[in-house]
Design goal:
By secondary structure, the protein is α+β, with helices and mostly antiparallel strands. It has 2 domains: 193 residues; 97 residues, no CATH class. Helix content is 24%, strand content 27%. It has 10 helices and 17 strands. Strand 1 and strand 2 form a beta hairpin. The longest helix is centred in the N-terminal third of the chain and has 14 residues. The radius of gyration is 23 Å and the shape is globular.
């Protein structure tokens, strides 16, 4: 389980070190930095697939995503006019748990004769054992274009070259790096399921076993056979009393049948309201037969009637028994319901923004989890 998440110089997250629980709810007002935190987590996951540079390009490049305020922060009282940077530019992301930790530092390249001078480079990457980075606990260490890893005897293997735009998570073959890569690649993100008329969830696809719900809601039908059917029935009944879901197999094409009290025939997926379909998609995502190490939900309350937030909170609390969850939301009724159902397993973090800088409400520097960034 991740216990610490650290972000530095990413949009409004100039310096943020957050404690994570089995179930962490991140909330705050509009513009407080919730979406930036969600995107920072996705960027960490992209690094394990060598996709961090492309992900930053989609956001306008590293320059567009860097903290735009003064180097020392906006709350120092020194003002924001006429300040210049004295340190090297760096976007830093990292996390740690009781067993392992990882951090990366992305910066601008040294100008060269190339058309790609705006591509960020990996200046430093570290993988270590335990919750806090220490020289003695390093398992793999990357400095600019060189990466080295410890062997089974604990000694450093000979260093080898690596491209500056590649992550060592994707290129190194040491056992610890491979293990961390697969763990990060198992992370799952869900953000704004499609429920339009042409949404994959409204179609009747050829039936295949897909224990992981696609990010756009495709393959909704699998959970009935290979998942927890009893939990599915309970989740549907809690939200829609008297209702049940079946899967119709017509010439190998699977269709959703939603039986509702008072109707003579079931409704298919194309007939369901956006809110009903979206709730069923959350059921499939949270009751996945193949739970990830980390599941991140971004504003799951979107398009849901307030009456559905209580059963959704129960689903989230149940899912937290099998995996770690981070829920980003500003729906107070959902937060209260999660806190009641999950009890001591849930932790609520409230982000606030002061002078354009995101901080954790009530957290002073001495309250932060222990964290050390690798130096260049």
């Amino acid at each position: 389980m991740l216990t610490t998440l650290a972000v530095e110089n990413y949009r409004s997250l100039r310096h943020l070190v957050l404690p994570l629980a089995r179930l962490t709810v991140v909330t705050g007002a509009n513009g407080s930095g919730k979406s930036s935190l969600y995107r920072a987590l996705r960027l960490l996951a992209d690094a394990s697939r060598n996709g961090a540079v492309a992900a930053l390009a989609r956001e306008g490049g590293l320059q567009s995503t860097l903290w735009a305020g003064p180097e020392a922060g906006s709350k120092t009282g020194a003002g924001t006019q006429g300040t210049v940077r004295t340190k090297r530019v760096g976007l830093r992301l990292g996390f740690a748990g009781d067993d392992f930790g990882y951090a990366l530092d992305l910066g601008m390249p040294i100008p060269a004769v190339t058309e790609f001078n705006l591509d960020p480079e990996f200046k430093r990457e570290c993988l270590w054992r335990g919750p806090v980075l220490k020289p003695a606990t390093l398992l793999a260490d990357r400095a600019n274009g060189t990466v080295r890893a410890r062997g089974d005897d604990g000694a450093w293997a000979p260093p080898r070259k690596i491209r500056l735009t590649d992550s060592m998570l994707a290129e190194s073959a040491s056992p610890e790096v491979l293990m961390m890569r697969e763990r990060i690649r198992s992370w799952r993100f869900y953000d704004q399921f499609r429920t339009d008329a042409d949404a994959p969830a409204r179609a009747s696809p050829i039936g295949t076993r897909t224990p992981v719900l696609d990010h756009d809601g495709a393959d909704l039908q699998t959970i009935r056979e290979v998942g927890n059917a009893a939990a599915l029935d309970e989740a549907v009944a809690n939200a829609f009393p008297g209702a049940r879901v079946e899967i119709a197999n017509q010439d190998t094409r699977f269709g959703l049948c939603f039986h509702q009290r008072g109707l003579l025939r079931p409704l298919d997926a194309a007939e369901l309201s956006d809110g009903t379909l979206r709730y069923l998609l959350w059921v499939a995502a949270l009751l996945t037969p193949r739970p990830p190490e980390l599941l991140v939900l971004n504003e799951p309350e979107t398009s849901l009637h307030p009456d559905l937030l209580v059963p959704l909170a129960a689903l989230i609390a149940t899912a937290a028994e099998r995996m770690q969850l981070i829920v980003v939301t500003h729906a107070r009724p959902l937060i209260r319901s999660i806190e009641v159902v999950a009890e001591d397993r849930a932790s609520t973090l409230t982000l606030v923004k002061e002078l354009s800088e995101t901080t954790l409400d009530g957290q002073g520097r001495l309250d932060e989890p222990s964290w050390h960034w690798p130096k260049r």
